[in-house]
Each structure stands twice: as C-alpha cells, then as structure tokens.
Amino acid sequence: MDLSGKHIILGITGSIAAYKSAYLASALKKAKADVTVIMTKNATEFIAPLTFETLTGNRCLVDTFDRNFQYEVEHVELAKKADIFMIAPASADVIAKAAHGIADDMLTTTLLAAACPKIFAPAMNTRMFQNPITQDNLSLLKKYGMTVITPQTGYLACGDVGIGKMPEPEALYELIMYTLCQKNLCGVKVLVSAGPTREAIDPVRFVSNHSSGKMGFAIARAAARRGADVTLVTGQVNLATPLGVMRVDVTSAAEMQGAINAQAKNSDVIVMAAAIADYRPKHVADQKIKKSGDNLILEMMRTADILADLGANKKPGQFLCGFAMESENMEKNAKEKLAKKNLDMIVANNIRTEGAGFAVDTNIVTLIDSEGETQLPILSKDEVAERILDEIKRKKFG
Ligand code: CTP
Q1: Dihedral sign computed on CA atoms, order 277, 283, 286, 287
Q2: Which fold has domain 189-397?
Q3: Are 195 and 237 in contact (CB under 8 A)?
C-alpha cells in the first residue's frame, strides 16, 4: 500500500524524541504521502524545521503569526484536507491543551479544526506521565475519539527508568498505515504461516532452512491493515509482530501442524508461506551427540504435509493458498502442487532468480490458479503481499 493522495499532518512538540519523527516523516514521504509538519516553538529547540522541510518537501509550520505564509489564516484549510493527524512526540502540555480545546498556536489551532483521525504519541518523564492530571487529560482525548499510544518503558533521556518513551518510528508508521488502509477484508478470518521450522537432532542442534519469515509476516500485516482477523503461526524468526495480529510461535513442523490445525476450521483464508521441513531426524538424542569417527549419518523421516492435509479437508468456501519455492521447472512443479494439494492459488518463485527468495526484501513471484497465471515484476515483499491479497479478495469475494 502506498500513501499517494493522502495528506498527513505530523505535529511535533518539545521533547528529545522529536528526532525520531524525522525518520517517520521520511518514511511517510517515501510511501508517497503529502506530509505537512507543524512544530511548537519548543520543538524547534530540539530539531530544526529545515530538517522536516528537506525531508517532506513542504513548508514546516511553526506559528500562527508567521506573516510570510499562506496558512497564517488558513489553518482550517490545512485541517480540512488532512487524512490523519499524528502528534509525535506529544508533550504533557499539548495533551493538556488538546484535551481542553485550547488553541493558541499553529499546532493546536489546526488540531482543533481537524476532523480526521488524531493520534497522540506521548513522550515525557515518567512522573509527568503518571501524574493524575496527565492521565485524566489522556482519558479525555480518548473520550473525544482520539487515539493515544501507550508509551514504552525504558531508560529516559532525563536519566530515569520508567514509562514515557515514544515508540520507534516504525511502530508509528505502521499505525498510520493501519489507520489509513482501506478496510476491505473486515471480519474475514485469515490464517498465515511463516518462517522456518527447526527439527531437533539433539538438545543443542537442529535441521532448518534459511527462511526469514518476511513474506508471511508481510501477508499477515497487510491482511490486518485491511481489517481481517489475522492469526500468524510462525517458526523462529527475528521479526516484530505486525500490528493487530494474533501470533503463535512454534518450533518444529509437528508443532506448526498442531497450531495450524487448531485454527484451520475457523479460517476463511489460509496462506501457507512457512518453509516447513519435509524430513526430521528419526531419533532425537537425549544427550548432546559427541564427535566420533569421520562421518555422522542421520536417519531422517517424513513430516506431515500440512498444506496437503488442509487441501484434503478443506471446508466449503475456504480459500487455500500455498507457496512453491523452486530452483528449476518452477511453473510445472507449482502447477502440480496446486492440483495435488487441492489449492485455490499457489505463489511460485524461483530461488535462483536474483531478487527472489529468502534473504532479500524483494520477491519475484508468479500467481497461479486454475484460470491461468500472473507473473509479477520484482516487488518488495510488502507489495507482493498486497498483490496476493488483492487476488484472493477478487477470487473469493468478487
Ligand atoms: N508445506 C507444508 N508442509 C510441509 C511442506 C510444505 O504445508 N511439510 C507447504 C508450504 O508451506 C508451501 C507448500 O507446502 O506452502 C509448498 O512447499 P514446498 O517446500 O515448495 O513444496 P513441497 O510440497 O514440500 O515439495 P518439494 O519439497 O518436493 O518441492
């Protein structure tokens, strides 16, 4: 999803966390949003307006009494065209003003005039955050329909350790995407698998593969943004849980099968992006295997084909999507898997193609179903996820 045609107002108040908002502004601009930054005077002590002007390509607004700028009496126009208004970092002061309708500078006047979704990311000292006055003000913001992000706990710039840190820009970005995304999969139950499985050899070793989990996580994230009710069953990966997604962590193929089967009956759409071991060691040693001799032979046995089982027991109307990662004869092999596993669609890629596969952030896939195939160009995994969901939506819901 890109943000073409969306206008975002980013309010910045006086807090050391203001530097993080430069990353946020940059990410939003890269996603093609039209970003206007409004700063309080105190915010300019922490970061220069020029930073935001350079990143967004738009004039940064600081004060209602800036006589040189067209918005001096037109903040209402700016408020009208905003699709979303995020104040990050939000100081105790701006929270108090917003809660009580005080409008005494460019930021608070525009905020009061805006009818779009408003999100606050408080950032302040723990004692200020926990003060009942601040807490009451935050409750008031929520009462008036605004969103308040719970700050993180950690080491604060003032030296204290406690609650009050602004979340990282990636989390704020995701919340904006989540809020702005068209909710075209509302109420649809989507089950996604992701990542590698690990099959134990002994207490310290396992057999696995190079799957990073990025493709499956991108699908789960994109589905959640569209309003789907998403469960993500994942092998061991180093990725943050996407916003709004129910995550179930597993290790082995057998555990993955248990977790998938527990959810499958209640799922409208199942996307199996996990790289599941086809074989596991037949015997798992109780103790660490000591070295002896020049060779070690491991006897392996088949694991269950989870997707084939799902295909054999598909409930009426359920949409089943598999992946086929091939190193040769991609189309032929993928079509065979589509038929053999009773799938509605298979996403095929060739790991030998540069830009496709495990280690990279991009993928080059072909979507194959009974009607034919669609070859997609090289895309980010997030974009591939969007295209897969568009196709599923078109085929299942028209
Ligand atoms: N899959 C599965 N259970 C397994 C192995 C794979 O559910 N034990 C699923 C994968 O999540 C993927 C699809 O089956 O959606 C195809 O996986 P892939 O490894 O490409 O194919 P296999 O069916 O394992 O066939 P082969 O290894 O012979 O290519």
Answers
A1: negative
A2: Rossmann fold (3.40.50)
A3: yes
Q: Nearest 5 degrees, angle CA 385-CA 248-CA 217?
A: 15
> What is the rounded CA–CA span in Å between residue 379 and residue 238?
22
What span, in angstroms and rounded, lies between the C-alpha atoms of 351 and 363?
A: 9
Ligand 1 site, CB within 6 A = 253, 272, 274, 276, 278, 303, 305-307, 322-325, 337
pLDDT in tens, 174-207: 999 999 999 999 999 999 999 999 999 999 999 9
Same fold, 7-180 and 189-397: yes
Task: Determine contact, residues 127/153, Cβ cutoff 8 Å.
Answer: no
199, 257, 337: residue to mutate for ligand 1 pocket, most atoms within 8 A of CB:
337
Domain boundaries, given as residue ranges, for the chain: 7-180, 189-397
Quote the CATH superfamily of domain 7-180. Flavin prenyltransferase-like (3.40.50.1950)
DSSP code at position 42: T
**β-sheet bridge partners, residue 147:** 119
CA torsion through residues 324, 328, 329, 333, sign: negative
pTM given for the model = 0.92
Give the neighbor-by-neighbor strand order of the sheet with 84-90. 34-39, 7-12, 84-90, 118-122, 147-148
Q: Which of 299, 252, 298 is nearest to 276 (CA)?
A: 252
- Which amino acid, one-letter code, is at 171? A
Distance 322 CA to ligand 1 centre (A): 8
| Dist CA 117 CA 85 (whole Å) | 6
**Contact partners, residue 198, CB within 8 Å, separation at least 6:** 206, 207, 208, 235, 236, 251, 252, 277
226 Cα: distance to centroid of ligand 1 (angstroms) = 27
How confident is the model over 48-80, as pLDDT tens digits? 999 999 999 999 998 755 555 555 566 788 999
Nearest partner of 7 among 29, 35, 27, judged by Cα: 35
